[in-house]
Automatic annotation (TrEMBL):
Name of the protein this chain belongs to: PadR family transcriptional regulator
PANTHER family in the cross-refs: PADR-FAMILY TRANSCRIPTIONAL REGULATOR (PTHR33169), TRANSCRIPTIONAL REGULATOR PADR FAMILY PROTEIN (PTHR33169:SF27)
One Pfam family cited in the UniProt record for this chain: PadR
UniProt KW Zinc keyword: no
Domain Transcription regulator PadR N-terminal, residue spans: 11-86
Coiled-coil regions listed in the entry: 119-146
SUPFAM superfamilies: Winged helix' DNA-binding domain
Gene3D superfamilies, per the entry: Winged helix-like DNA-binding domain superfamily/Winged helix DNA-binding domain
Keyword Phosphoprotein included in the entry's annotation: no
UniProt keyword annotations, A-Z: Coiled coil
Native source organism of the sequence: Cellulomonas algicola
Organismal lineage: Bacteria, Bacillati, Actinomycetota, Actinomycetes, Micrococcales
């Protein structure tokens, strides 16, 4: 059986609470702001449910129609689905799932751009990330005040911590670019090249 995608895990998690039809799954993901975790739309949810049903991880309970709305099929989690969900969830928490954000590629090659271009791009990123941070902090404070336990918000706490760190790093780096503390237009150090030639076995972090 193929590994469960992040969308499939979120779908199974909601069906673990109680049976739902796919559009209700999507609406709940939006309501809980889980769309910040994965890119998801109604079509992706319907596709995920169809695949889960094909693999025997969910099963249809019945189909109903309300007014002029299209027919909606309600699904529930199977025992196989519960087991697959718990295994994959534990893997998400503890195993290595490498991601390769393009921001890191941009930083690696940033020296090929003029300092003011890099500075403006980082400021643009900083403003967007600071806005996301403020929104998350506000939502976190609101639902905690409403009585939602912290154990249901660990993902939000992690994202807040990550965003705080990134905004702080961006602030520091932009200030260094403004002060030219990075020596952006300085020539590449000849001493580094000489040292590298004397040591044939390059380290993984050398460029």
């Amino acid at each position: 059986m193929p590994e469960l995608s992040a969308v499939a895990v979120l779908v199974l998690g909601l069906l673990r609470e109680h049976p739902r039809h796919p559009y209700d799954v999507f609406q709940t993901l939006v309501e809980r702001r889980d769309t910040r975790l994965v890119r998801v739309n109604p079509g992706a949810v319907y596709h995920a449910v169809e695949r889960l049903a094909r693999d025997g991880l969910v099963e249809a309970l019945g189909t109903e129609r309300s007014g002029n709305r299209p027919e909606r099929t309600t699904y529930r989690l199977t025992d196989a689905g519960r087991s697959a969900y718990e295994r994959r969830l534990a893997s998400f928490l503890g195993d290595d799932h490498p991601v390769h954000p393009v921001f890191s590629v941009g930083l690696a090659e940033a020296v090929d751009l003029p300092r003011d271009v890099v500075r403006d791009a980082l400021v643009r990123r900083r403003e967007r990330e600071a806005e996301r941070l403020a929104e998350l902090e506000s939502a976190y404070t609101r639902v905690r005040a409403q009585g939602l336990p912290r154990r249901h918000l660990l993902d939000v706490e992690h994202d807040v911590a990550h965003l705080r760190h990134e905004v702080e790093w961006l602030d520091r780096t932009v200030a260094e670019l403004d002060d030219d503390a990075l020596g952006w237009d300085d020539p590449f150090p000849a001493a580094f090249l000489e040292a590298r030639h004397r040591r044939p076995a390059a380290t993984a972090t050398s460029r």
